[in-house]
């Protein structure tokens, strides 16, 4: 199962961690894992390309299925509105994956 944890302050995500593989299917055929990866990686690429929101890669380990990223300015209440929209869009996509495939493959936590 993949566990996605969003760390929030004042309703803004300042860090998120994706941990584990969905195990929906064999490696290379796992559409749930592919969807989760695509949503998170595309969001980070879009934030980097289209906003001025800095982020720090705490850990990225493809083998273990870990993406752990922090947005340092968000802890102090500063954030780019465009990045906020991209993060909310990612959350919506992940929640849709959870609705389609179930909690057996993806769990979403808010802290």
Automatic annotation (TrEMBL):
Keywords: Hydrolase, Protease, Ribosome biogenesis, Thiol protease. Pfam families: Peptidase_Prp (PF04327). GO terms for molecular function: cysteine-type peptidase activity. GO terms for biological process: proteolysis; ribosome biogenesis. It comes from the Bacteria. InterPro entries: Peptidase_Prp, Peptidase_Prp_sf. Gene3D superfamilies: Cysteine protease Prp. CDD domains: Prp-like. The keyword Hydrolase applies. Belongs to the Prp family. This is Ribosomal processing cysteine protease Prp. It comes from Cellulosilyticum lentocellum (strain ATCC 49066 / DSM 5427 / NCIMB 11756 / RHM5). The lineage of its organism: Bacteria, Bacillati, Bacillota, Clostridia, Lachnospirales.
